[in-house]
Design goal:
By secondary structure, the protein is an alpha/beta fold. It folds into 2 domains: 169 residues, Rossmann fold (3-Layer(aba) Sandwich), CATH 3.40.50.300; 181 residues, RecF/RecN/SMC, N-terminal domain (Glutathione S-transferase Yfyf (Class Pi), Chain A, domain 2), CATH 1.20.1050.90. The strands form 3 sheets. It has a 6-stranded antiparallel β-sheet with strand order 2-1-4-5-6-7, covered by helices on one side. A 6-stranded mixed β-sheet has the order 8-12-13-3-14-15, sandwiched between helices. A 3-stranded antiparallel β-sheet has the order 9-10-11. Strand 12, helix 10 and strand 13 form a beta-alpha-beta unit. The chain is globular.
């Protein structure tokens, strides 16, 4: 997958600007706060329909403007694809090759991207939410069925949690089985897809981490809960777990078991990473996970995703920078940094200097 052109209008700090990208390294450089990350964010938004930085789309609109527009011309193995997003205060419209999409699941897969920034350290050092978010974003790009199941699961979960706060215990106990039947159906899809994802992720991550650390440390990724059987079997087992936790759920007022509570176990050298790893170790582990995500996209879709590296090089020492560049030599990469010469070491690239939301020659 390659992105050829990107057009931004009233997006973040861009009034109007057009980018032409090469098939290899594309370096957006300039001082901090000029709009480099905003451009990278726009690429990811058109791939997933979501921003990694904000919760409400209206925050993407340039101050003083009524709407924002993003357009990408790209290529995948099926040919050319154009994705347009018009963002307003209270709504948005996204079109793929001129056709308006009705739901976000229809956007997934046209262009895939992997986004990595220093903030991805949260993957290792923060709580389970971050690791679930990582899996959800990654799997959704290659599996619309997963994305749909996730949306429906979360909707039913919210309704179940609302029910658990009802003081009429008899009503709650009579109604819970109805919600549980639907909840477990979608939960089984989520669980099965996550297990398949981790099975692919773990060996790639181990290999990349060994390369980045010269084999000095071993990275091991495992799910914190093992589910066995097909989707029907998993759904039935989850239903039993929910029933066994009725008393606890009623007491706490929320659902205490299910894939919304699952996690990944990440260890480095046999030690729990989030508790014992240094900042440098966490950074390398997170990078290994993201590089592994690239390989999973290639295995599932038949082509590499677009790799977006936002201010990553400044966080890596010289040996790891060189190793990273070697790992991504075959990818289209959009990389942001403050000084292009300091991170590329003579690598061929297209340099784009950004100043106050404008491309400067």
């Amino acid at each position: 997958m390659k992105i050829k052109k990107l057009f931004l209008q009233n997006f973040r700090n861009y009034e109007q600007e057009s980018f032409d990208f090469s098939d290899g390294f594309n370096v957006l450089f300039g001082k901090n706060g000029q709009g480099k990350t905003n451009c990278a964010e726009a690429v990811f938004y058109l791939c997933t329909g979501a921003s990694l930085r904000i919760r409400h789309d209206k925050q993407l609109i340039r101050i003083g403007a009524d709407s924002a527009r993003i357009v990408a011309e790209a290529e995948n193995r099926y040919g050319r694809v154009t994705i347009e997003a018009d963002i307003y205060e209270n709504k948005r419209e996204i079109r793929v090759n001129g056709s308006k999409i009705r739901k976000n699941a229809d956007l997934m897969g046209h262009i895939n991207s992997v986004f990595f920034s220093p903030g991805e350290l949260r993957l290792i050092q923060d709580g389970p939410d971050e690791r679930r978010r990582f899996m959800n974003l990654s799997i959704s790009q290659t599996s619309p069925a997963y994305y749909t199941a996730l949306l429906r699961y979360n909707k039913i979960l919210d309704q179940r949690n609302t029910l658990l706060k009802n003081r009429d215990v008899e009503l709650v106990l009579d109604t819970l089985p109805v919600w549980d039947e639907q909840l477990c159906q979608y939960a089984a899809v989520i669980v099965k897809k996550r297990l398949e994802f981790v099975e692919k992720l773990a060996p790639f991550a181990k290999e990349y981490h060994a390369f980045l650390t010269d084999g000095k440390e071993e990275l091991v990724i495992k799910p914190d809960r093992i589910y066995e059987g097909d989707e029907g079997t998993i759904a039935q087992k989850l239903k039993v777990r929910l029933e066994n936790n009725y008393e606890k759920d009623l007491r706490l007022g929320f659902t205490t078991v299910g894939p919304h509570r699952d996690d990944l176990n990440v260890t480095i050298g046999g030690m729990e990473a989030k508790s014992y790893a240094s900042q440098g170790q966490m950074r390398t582990a997170a990078l290994a996970l993201k590089l592994s995500e690239v390989q999973i996209f290639k295995a599932l879709s038949g082509e590499y995703p677009i790799l977006v590296l936002d201010d990553v090089m400044s966080e890596l020492d010289l040996p790891r920078r060189k190793k990273l560049l070697k790992c991504i030599a075959d990818l289209q990469t959009i990389l942001t940094c403050t000084h292009a010469e300091r991170v590329l070491y003579g690598s061929e690239c297209k340099k784009i200097r950004i100043e106050n939301g404008k491309i400067k020659g």
